[in-house]
Design brief:
Blueprint lengths: L3 H16 L1 H5 L5 H12 L10 H15 L28 E13 L12 E4 L2 E9 L5 E14 L7 E12 L9 E12 L6 E18 L18 E15 L4 E13 L4 E14 L8 E14 L8 H6 L4 E13 L6 E15 L1
Antiparallel strand pairs: 1-2, 1-3, 1-13, 2-4, 3-4, 4-5, 5-6, 6-7, 7-8, 8-9, 9-10, 10-11, 11-12, 12-13
Length: about 350
């Protein structure tokens, strides 16, 4: 059974909250109660257990950090958690498709997101995505549809292996004369989780997000870039803020509310080099289960150094474009989750090298 250890941890939560909640809530769980809870957990199908929401949120931020670098060559999707992603607050000139792929080779210190005793592992989690974006008539709105498929594989902890398909539908306000203005948006984002390889669905969720992006752009002399419909071409430094509230509906087990604050910064060193950093801060409160309500605090700082391979390496810009304008990213991220349900608390380091590709029509 995939993700066995983690799912048994969360099955234990289900057993505790239904059979021993009153004792657990008052922090008076006896040795006998713990034994009974463990026995109950064994009888629960692990696929019915809640996955770690914070771990999944951290994984999404990890991918968006890679897809949101100030890369002027490799096409990137116009939807991202980080406000400094280029073009995120700009109107689409016309309907267009964007295709992206990430091919990472990573070190992961705790693939199962365990509170203690996690086994480190190499991680291979390729991602492929397609986006379609369009202006909404003559209105100051942009509509974007995005779909992604991801395969997670760990050499040191095969029970953490699983696959996922995610989609998002984003409607965003765009100031047609100022891409540094506040840019509010609404997102509907469903996701389906599967055992390898996309064999059996064991979890699904639907997110409703309401929030905004705000970006401040500066040139190489650290002077504020003049407001315009497209100021990113003149930008060397970019400081951004994303904030949104979320309602998550999950099957199985508890739905939740979340509040996200995500500051970010990017710097274009040269046409071939750039660096970005950001931090995702999240407060998540789960629906009550027999009187027990899980509450989590999550934080994830991330940093990315990117090298965009010159077109001359591939015989010219046209050849490089056909190959997806390859870029090589060195990424480091740290995740920590604090929870009033102890098995949901964990720490993870992830670092490695990622090949990024992108195409647009």
């Amino acid at each position: 059974m995939t993700r066995g250890v983690q799912q048994r941890e969360y099955a234990t939560k289900n057993a505790i909250t239904r059979a021993e909640c009153a004792l657990y809530g008052r922090r008076r769980i006896s040795t006998v109660a713990l034994f009974v809870s463990a026995v109950l957990a064994i009888s629960i199908d692990p696929l019915a257990a809640q996955v770690n929401d914070s771990r999944d949120d951290g994984n999404e931020a990890f991918h968006d950090a890679l897809l949101g670098t100030p890369n002027r060559y490799t096409p990137q999707p116009p939807t991202n958690l980080f406000a400094t992603a280029p073009g995120l607050e700009q109107q689409a000139p016309r309907p267009q498709f964007t295709y992206n792929a990430l091919l990472p080779i990573l070190f992961n210190s705790n693939p199962l997101a365990l509170r203690s005793g996690g086994v480190d592992s190499a991680e291979f989690s390729p991602l492929a995505g397609i986006s379609w974006t369009t202006p909404v008539g003559d209105l100051p709105l942009r509509f974007t549809v995005n779909a992604r498929a991801e395969v997670d594989r760990f050499t040191g902890e095969t029970s953490a292996n699983f696959d996922k398909i995610a989609a998002s539908f984003r409607l965003q306000y765009i100031d047609l004369n100022n891409d540094q203005a506040y840019s509010p948006y609404f997102v509907y984002a469903p996701r389906w989780d599967f055992t390898p390889t996309f064999d059996r669905e064991f979890s699904r969720r639907q997110d409703l997000n309401l929030g905004f992006n705000k970006v401040f752009n500066f040139d190489a002399s650290f002077q504020r870039v003049a407001f315009s419909s497209s100021s990113s071409a003149d930008t060397a430094w970019s400081f951004g803020l994303t904030a949104f509230v979320q309602r998550r509906f999950r099957e199985p087990l508890e739905s939740s509310w979340g509040a996200f604050v995500i500051p970010s910064v990017s710097y274009v060193i040269s046409p071939q080099w750039n660096v970005t950093a950001g931090i995702e801060v999240l407060r998540r409160v789960f629906d009550s289960n027999n009187g027990f309500r899980q509450r989590d605090w999550f934080i994830e700082p991330l940093a990315t150094l990117e090298f965009v391979m010159p077109g001359s390496w591939f015989g010219g810009d046209s050849s490089a474009t056909m190959l997806g304008r390859p870029a090589l990213d060195v990424m480091a991220a740290y995740e920590e989750n604090w929870s009033n349900f102890e098995p949901a608390s964990y720490r993870i380091w992830r670092t490695g090298v990622v090949l990024k590709l992108g195409w647009s029509t």
